[in-house]
Design goal:
By secondary structure, the chain is mainly alpha-helical. The protein has ten helices and three strands. A hairpin with a 4-residue loop joins strand 2 (about 70-75) and strand 3. Helix 4 (about 95-110) packs across helix 9 and helix 5 (about 110-120) packs across helix 6 (about 130-135). The structure holds zinc ion (ZN).
Amino acid sequence: MIRMSAAAYTEFMTANQDNALPPSDPRAAKVIEIGKRMAAAVTSYMNDIGHPELIEGFQWTYNTIDDPTLNAWCMPGGRIVFYTGILELAKTDDEIAAIMGHEIAHAVAGHGNERMSQAAALQGATSVGQFLLMSDTSPGLGNAILLQSIGAGGQLTSLAFGRKHESESDNMGLTFMNKAGYDPYSAVTF
Ligand SMILES: [Zn+2]
């Protein structure tokens, strides 16, 4: 999943390069700053609870797309995208951290992997591995389904993930932002 995400992320960033904000843009800089702080907290937390394997191979990446879409996502492997649309709704660093904690939680909890397994089954594959082999023969199919599986298909990730995953990510996200020193109560105001 992480390997496939890396390819899908590169493809996504290439397709959106005209709208990708440079790191010098204050909005992109903010996402990078908060992202680094969150990633450090998540890493130390996973070590503390004895589950460093859940973030093994993660290569944290933070990008901001200038687009009114109300969404943000984090791929398996820690590749994060924020849209300026949702950034405009977040009034404080704490509120941005609340969004980010939630999205990181989807990646750490492997929700995209579960969705991907379901998608693979729908395509007639018996495993994600077999599905990836099938994807090789239909370029674009794997990437499209991966993007949907991690909630990058459109607005508001709940369309992709469903309630159980959303509640779980809300919970984990609060823990992550708390560990990073942000105010978890800002999730309520957001
Ligand atoms: Zn979500």
